[in-house]
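Design review, sub-item: ligand-bound model
Attendees: FS, YL, KQ
YL presented the inputs for the trimethylamine oxide complex:
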Amino acid sequence: MKKRFLRIFLPSVFAAIFSISQVSNAADSNEPIKVPLKNWSSQLVMAYVIGGMFESMGNTVEYVPVDNQASFEAVRLGEVTLVHEVWQSTMQNAYYNAMAEGGLIDAGTHAAATLEEMGVPNWVIEKDLCPGLPSWEALKDCHEVFATPDSGGKGRWLEGPQSWHGDVMPNRVKGLGLDDKWEVKFAGAAEALWTELKAAEKEGRGTIIFNWSPNFTDASGFTFIEFPPYYDGCRIKDGGTLETTGCGSPPGWLKKGANYKFPKTHPQAYTAFSKLSFTTPQIGQMAALVDVDGMGHEDAGKKWLADNEAVWKPWTQ
Ligand code: TMO
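KQ shared the predicted structure:
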């Protein structure tokens, strides 16, 4: 009697419970979702934004510091679950290599388009410190305005950390025939670029730095220099020559990627991550909370979530 009761009634009891609460979706695993922490502000704040979004859905999150270029292999191997800011111009090779090796999947594209390029704060143009900017050709005649005590009379071309792009900028300066007038210096970290922006403005001298968009400087006023257009193979490391390596940076997309198991182990979180898409102003705001307002990355992520529920809540439902 008892057995028969269980056999006949239990399945219908379960069916009733599930249909009443409409829990027809598969539940996420209790295993933590591993979110990478890298070394620039928007990536770090967005890590806490996405982690907080997963937590609001009942998931656990673990934050894992990773080297940017190594992070794509780490996703492939499942050491981190996802990457949320894949910049086409500097990361697509590592991203597609990890995909071709098997284990990293494309998890969609943000609304924001990207550019990583040398440029000047707008006041350099407004004060006409280098007539002809933003065309690169203007740099032939105004290097003195950009000289610093450490640049030996040449203009200082402040590139990001060398680990970001290797020899791309020294090669570009040579390729454009600017190497007798310009000296490439590498910043130790992203923060050194923002320190330089502030110092140059205070001293009223010209400055040229490597920068990117989306970033907090979209709102504060920054103009990218227009170089000869990029094409596949123009750079020396891609088979180009001194004649072609003067090319600028390519505009690009901003993608997401995930370990191939993520949709299966955490279908709800993966669905939200796949839907998630940030715009240029949203990513700029995330960076500004840290680089303009001086907040810590984690607090900035919490603030952004609190201020923007209407943006992210729909992705989790
Ligand atoms: C770290 N960056 C946004 C320049 O690729």
